[in-house]
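hi! just following up on the protien thing from before. the input was this:
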Amino acid sequence: MVRIKGMDMRDISAGILVGGKSTRMGENKAFLRAGDTNFLGRALAVCEGFSSVVISVGIPGPYKSIGTELVCDEKSGSGPLEGLYNLLRNSPSEYVFIMAVDMPLLTADFLEALAGCVDSEADCYIVRSCGRVHPLCGVYSRRVVPEIERMRENDERKIRLLLDRVKTRYLDIEDMGFDEVILSNVNSPGEYDKLKEDGLLD
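and the predicted 3d structure came back as:
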């Protein structure tokens, strides 16, 4: 298990990405039911320990009543890199935890451990499971904003390109002492139904 030695969650802001089109799901994933709340409600609850929380949206309308700060994409159709860009620019903290709203099994204990791995030596701290990189579950420094601006100018949209160009530390969830199931993300009705059948969304 990785020893918690770095930052506290209160040293870090959180940004939740909800701007996707949910094409494969067929409905807005932020409002999928999960127990007595929805995916967005779960994300907000698990991020309570961070110093602040901002939601990145494509269109603000459906989210205005939530009462959490919203940032809107400046360039539509640019994918999650655009949301990451606006979350980092609007963060009051040097480091920002970034998560996709369709990861409903993340836990506060895991996020506390992740914050503890941030030691200011890298630009990005990205979670990995069984060799698979999860760019939308990690902590990013605002130092990467200039590189994102260059990518936007060149119409480059893949976050993996950003991670290759800055100082990135990959954190294997197995070494952190957590099960990879908490990184499950939901992109289709079948994946959603499977989590419900397994009792993971109660």
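The beta strands are 13-17, 33-34, 37-38, 53-57, 69-72, 95-100, 124-129, 132-141, 168-172.
The mean pLDDT is 92.
cheers
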